[in-house]
Amino acid sequence: MALDPVQLATFHAVIAHGSFDAAARALHVTPSAVSQRIKALEQVVGQVLVRRARPCEPTAAGASLVRLGGQIALLEREALDAARGALTGRARVAVVVNADSLASWFLPALADVPDAVFDLHTDDEGHTAELLRAGTVMAAVTTEHTPVQGCRVLPLGVMRYLPVAAPAVHAAWFAGREPADALPDAPMVRFNRKDVLQHRFAREVTGRDLDPPVHCVPASSAFDAAVRLGLGWGLLPDFMAAADVEAGRLVHLAPGRHVDVPLYWQYWRLESAVLAALTTAVRAAAATALH
């Protein structure tokens, strides 16, 4: 039996908006209609698809249908717009992006796509493709260069990070010592437990895994502030740190060394006008900010 596209789009709306009531408002139907569509889809598939939690989440069986439902909803909206010759409403586009990109070069790209509303997610760049793989988002800024099934991938450039510290931290832990000798004991600032950049740099310098004192600061602006205030050393994007290193407000811990993170744009393989416009805008914004 073929899957009903209306039921699939309703299923995607429940997952995207987090509840049956929110999906009903987005689809301009009653919560009862949403519930009936989901039950009918579950009967066809023969599996429970939605975990009735707060927010609603797909079950293991439902996860495979999230992306399909979202693709149908997007293409249906664009087809209606084309048939009617006017916009019926802005398409909702879910995107996941790493925090440093979101805090710097990514948002201007969204301003160049006025015919969409955006549902932004943040995660470590090494994990953003997981949401794309699950169908939760339509596009991702990621370090994964291998295409997720059903997606296209384009290179964006390299985000370069410099190992820096406030002058007081440098004086207390690094002055008169080689970085390899100081890094095992010097306090470190990392974004969260998924963030491995600082540990990667320390391993490259020392040749071994380290376990120094670590502050977790899970916001880009707060992370930057934590390094500047002297909680510990950390890796900052070069466009945020270079001028302060030159002015003496930050100290480069290993001049000539840096960490490069290649970034890629992965997005659903659909002939979608809004995804095409977003891709063009993202590539243009990245070209001005990344190496």
What does this structure look like?
By secondary structure, the protein is α/β, with parallel strands linked by helices. Among the domains are: 87 residues, Winged helix-like DNA-binding domain superfamily/Winged helix DNA-binding domain (Arc Repressor Mutant, subunit A, Orthogonal Bundle); 101 residues, D-Maltodextrin-Binding Protein, domain 2, CATH 3.40.190. It is 47% helix and 20% strand. The chain contains 13 helices and eleven strands. The strands form three sheets. Strands 3, 4, 5, 6, 9, 10 and 11 form a seven-stranded mixed beta sheet that branches. A hairpin with a 5-residue loop joins strand 1 and strand 2. Helix 1 packs across helix 3. 39% of the residues are buried. The mean pLDDT is 90.
Q: Which percent range fits the helix content?
A: 40-55%
CATH homologous superfamily designation of the domain at 159-259: Periplasmic binding protein-like II
**Level-2 CATH architecture of the domain at 159-259:** 3-Layer(aba) Sandwich
| Count of individual beta strands | 11
Low-confidence stretches: none
Largest sheet: 7 strands, mixed
**Beta-strand share of residues:** 15-25%
The helix/strand series, from N terminus to C terminus, equals HHHEEHEHHEHEEHHEHEHEHEEH
Shape: elongated
| Category by helix and strand content | alpha/beta
Radius of gyration: 23 Å
How far is the first residue's CA from the last residue's CA? 50 Å
> What is the CATH C-level name of the domain at 159-259?
Alpha Beta
Question: What is the CATH T-level topology of the domain at 159-259?
Answer: D-Maltodextrin-Binding Protein, domain 2
Overall pLDDT metric: 90
**Count of DSSP-assigned helices:** 13
Protein name: LysR family transcriptional regulator (Chromosome initiation inhibitor)
Pfam families: HTH_1 (PF00126), LysR_substrate (PF03466)
Domain HTH lysR-type: 3-59
Organism: Catenuloplanes niger
